[in-house]
Hints:
The complex is a heterodimer.
Chain A: H1 7-16, E1 21-23, H2 33-42, E2 46-49, H3 55-58, E3 68-71, H4 74-82, E4 91-93, H5 100-104, H6 111-118, E5 126-130, H7 141-153, E6 163-167, E7 185-187, H8 198-209, E8 213-216, H9 221-227, E9 232-234, E10 248-251
Parallel strand pairs in A: 1-2, 2-3, 3-4, 5-6, 5-8, 6-7, 8-9
Antiparallel strand pairs in A: 9-10
Chain B: E1 2-4, H1 7-18, H2 24-37, H3 47-59, H4 70-86
Amino acid sequence: MIAEPTDRIRGFLDEEQPDLIVATMLVGRAREVDVVRAARQAGIPTAYACASWDNLVTAGLLHAVPDTMAVWNEWQRHEATTLHGMPASAVSVTGAPAYDVWFRASPSRDRDTWCREVGLDPARPYLLYACSSRFITEDESTYIGPWFEGLRAARHPELDGIQLLVRPHPHNPVDPTRLEGMAGLVVYPFPAEIPVDDHSRAGYVDAIHHSAAVVRVNTSALIESAIFERACTCSPRSGTRRPRPERCTSVTCSRPPAT
Amino acid sequence: MEATSSRSEHYAGLAAAVGGATTEATAAKAREFLSALVRPNGLDRAATPILADVLEQTGALTVAANGSDPGLELAADELRSLVEKLW
């Protein structure tokens, strides 16, 4: 990561003459590093809009230092200044722009329509299991079945007849054949979708909104569930790569009136 | 965040959530979480326009062409220090 920018990048900037270079990743194996370095050498302003909550603490030091930095919150401002040596005056707390879309979202289907569409019984509650990336877990289909059976065997009256909607992570496929034949369990959507257009976003919102609670190991579904005021718990999965498997955490919040 | 120490506690927490036993106090916790992590400038204030302002201000900066790179210098310092220790 200490190589000089390539002639190709320098030539690109020379040809395009941009007013500003914005990078969303300048740690780890980010490809934007060379572009920011070349821009600094050319006198083009550079900004780093931090893409995720843990980018400043889990992927090493900045490989290129931008003129300004936009971070989600005060924790990240502290990390930027104390860990990465950014001047405090160059760091702005903006919040997380990627989540604005979810604050604006609302369900597109009523609960009956949604449940029938995905193959769930509308008369019974369901949990949404939001799968995690490969970075966090192996194929979760090996775990979800026994976990769901354990949940039912716990015999809590509130969980009588509970259903499970498994939402695969778009970059970490699950093997649905391992979950076939389990009553009350549906894998949807399959193949997995990245919620970046109106259709796929609507499905994600409906899946969370109409659920009774959300379960996951470690995904951004924690944030989206909080936005939609759904309880979100972390399943105590064994074999998880990063979280502490002996503990399970939860953020619980009240359920708004059903629509 | 609430931590549980066993799977049975985890299931019990889910049962409480499904049964609607969670309270407005825990909803307030979720709002507090979002206010601190995702929207520190106010839950009703979108982050995108704030970021856009920051980017416009950055684009208006006059930046001198700089052959040096603080990141490279930092890495070089670290490497020098390591080499000296090993030598």
